Amino acid sequence: QVQLVESGGGLVQAGGSLRLSCAVSGRTFSNYNMGWFRQAPGKERDFVAAISRRGGSTNYVDSVKGRFTISRDNAKNTVYLQMNSLKPEDTAVYYCAADASNLLSIATMSLYEYDYWGQGTQVTVSS
Fold first, then answer.
1. Contact (Cβ atoms closer than 8 angstroms) between residue 16 and residue 125
2. Which residues in the chain show pLDDT less than 70?
C-alpha cells in the first residue's frame, strides 16, 4: 500500500515563502510521476505542479509559474513544492499525489491520472 504524507503547510504573510514536503512509502517511488494539487473552500481540486519520475519534466499551472518550484529526491522518497512570493489567492489545502500506473515518464496534469493521494496540508496566506 502506498502512503503519502504532506508537511510544511502553515500561515504566512503575502510575499512570504513555504516549502511543502510529501514523503511517500514504498520501494518504487522512482517509478511514480508526482503532482501537487490544491483545493480552496467551496472550489474544485485544481492542478498546481507535476514532475516526471526522474525529474526531467515539470509542468505548472500558469498562476504559479515563476513562483513555485516542484522537485523530488528519489533517494529520500520525497517530493517538494517550494512556494515563493505567496499571494492570498494561494490559500488552500495542498495535496500531493502519485501517478503509479502510467507507463510514461511525464509530468501528469490531470487529477484523474493519479492513483494515490495524501491527506493534505493547509496553506493560509494573509494579506
1. yes
2. none
